[in-house]
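> example.struct
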C-alpha cells in the first residue's frame, strides 16, 4: 500500500520533531514539568517515541499501531501544554496566547491521526 503525501507529511513532522529533541534538548528541558523525575531521560524517550512513531507510519504493518501511539502521545503531551500555562517560568518565554492556541492544535493533530483509522 502506498503512503499518501499527507501521511508522509505527518510522518516527517513527527520524525523531525523527535530529532529536534536530540539536536536542541535544552528547549525541551525548559518545558518539562518540574514535578516529573529524570527530565533528560523523558526528553530522550519522547524524542525517540516521535521518531519511531513517525517512521512506523510509513509501513503498512505498523501504521495503525503508530496512529494509536501518536494519539496517546498527544494526550500525554497535553500535560506539558497545561503545565506551561501554570506560570511565567513554566511558559519558557512563549507568549500566553500561543500557549493557549497549542491546546486546540493538539486536538487537531489527534483528529488528523484518528482520520486514518476510520
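> example.seq
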Amino acid at each position: 500500500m502506498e503512503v499518501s503525501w499527507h501521511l508522509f507529511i505527518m510522518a516527517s513532522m513527527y520524525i523531525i520533531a523527535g530529532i529536534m529533541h536530540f539536536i536542541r534538548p535544552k528547549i525541551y528541558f525548559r518545558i518539562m514539568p518540574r514535578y516529573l523525575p529524570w527530565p533528560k531521560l523523558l526528553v530522550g524517550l519522547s524524542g525517540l517515541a516521535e521518531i519511531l512513531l513517525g517512521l512506523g507510519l510509513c509501513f503498512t504493518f505498523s501504521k495503525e499501531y503508530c496512529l494509536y501511539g501518536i494519539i496517546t502521545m498527544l494526550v500525554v503531551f497535553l500535560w506539558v501544554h497545561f503545565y506551561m500555562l501554570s506560570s511565567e517560568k513554566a511558559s519558557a518565554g512563549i507568549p500566553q496566547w500561543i500557549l493557549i492556541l497549542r491546546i486546540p492544535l493538539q486536538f487537531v493533530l489527534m483528529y488528523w491521526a484518528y482520520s486514518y483509522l476510520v
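> remarks
The mean pLDDT is 93.
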